[in-house]
Amino acid sequence: MTVAFDTDHDVVYGAVDQLSPLIRRVTANNPSKFTFRGTGTYIVGTGDHVAIIDPGPRDDDHVAALLAAVEGEHVTHVLITHTHGDHSPAAAAVVAATGATTYGFGPHPPDAVSEADQAAPDTDDEPVDPEEAARRAEQAEQERPDTDFVPDEVVGDGDRISGAGWSIECVHTPGHISNHLCFALAEESALFSGDHVMGWSTTIIPPPDGDMAAYLGSLRLVAHRAERVYYPTHGAAITNPVPYVESLLAHRLDREQQILDHLSLGPATIPDMVAALYADVPEELHRPAARSVRAHLVQLVAEDRIGSDAGEATADATYSRH
């Protein structure tokens, strides 16, 4: 199944984009192969009851742009889709400046893999010039997990958060990470989809906390909802959400079948499978691809559809069909 990705998304960092009567967006200058053009922080509402969704990375310029965007208004709520380093760390600075209450599913899961881990080079001896090394170090610092974040208010599936002129339902969508939430804005039939559904790319599912079975279940959950537009934290709005989510689901099931077909040829390791199944993908993305392949293998081993010589779906196991 081919997914129709939308990579036509131009941004001006620090500018305020008015997306609808209730929604504004400010994009952080943290583009990467995992964040696309950068983290899009959403501002919901106006005046005395303003909510900020995913305040973003450890970036003073982005925090300053956010606070300038809401100058003269009262930020009452800060909502966190999940605790990867490009989403939640700026919450601390925003709360310090505004006194807002934070909302999230919970703190960072101990087993969750960060974008910095996903972006790390495959070997320690890869030659890197000093400027590139400094750039990588800065990116790794920005993207390390937000283990400091603890929500003031813990919210879960079906819980509601409201302010003057807006009301939001929390939708628990584990898979990418177990504490992932989407937020449904009733007044505009809109879903803030975080990293769960993005229009520019598929979502990485990194074990051990990343869970393919949970992710597929979460895709099916949002596909049965009625929202008419999705606002992911990275990339443009998705205006045909249900067909798009169905294409993502079909793509994952196709990948699962490709893994099974590859194993029908004989036992294989994860690097074997990545080399064959992602031959048309740049090698710099093979490491995160290996995590998604492993996520499929974890599910397939748990369902006893394949075997592993390690008895479980480890990174260096050899897999085979029964």
Q: Which descriptors would you attach to this protein?
A:
five-stranded mixed beta sheet, 19% strand, globular, Metallo-beta-lactamase, Chain A, 322 residues, 2 domains, alpha/beta, single chain, seven-stranded mixed beta sheet, Arc Repressor Mutant, subunit A
Detailed description of the structure:
This protein has 322 residues and is an alpha/beta fold. The chain has two domains: 16-248, Metallo-beta-lactamase, Chain A; 252-321, Orthogonal Bundle (Arc Repressor Mutant, subunit A). It is 30% helix and 19% strand. It is built from eight helices and 15 strands. The chain has helices spanning 60-69, 91-98, 115-119, 130-143, 212-223, 241-264, 270-277, 286-302; strands at 16-18, 23-27, 40-44, 50-53, 75-79, 101-104, 153-154, 160-163, 166-172, 181-185, 190-194, 229-232, 268-269, 306-308, 318-321. The strands form three sheets. It has a seven-stranded mixed β-sheet with strand order 1-2-3-4-5-6-7, with helices on one face. β10 and β11 form a beta hairpin. α5 packs antiparallel against α6. The longest helix is centred in the last third of the chain and has 24 residues, at 241-264. It is globular. The model is unreliable at 119-125 (pLDDT under 50).
Blueprint (SSEs and pairs):
Layout: E1 16-18, E2 23-27, E3 40-44, E4 50-53, H1 60-69, E5 75-79, H2 91-98, E6 101-104, H3 115-119, H4 130-143, E7 153-154, E8 160-163, E9 166-172, E10 181-185, E11 190-194, H5 212-223, E12 229-232, H6 241-264, E13 268-269, H7 270-277, H8 286-302, E14 306-308, E15 318-321
Parallel strand pairs: 4-5, 5-6, 6-7, 11-12
Antiparallel strand pairs: 1-2, 2-3, 3-4, 8-9, 9-10, 10-11, 13-15, 14-15
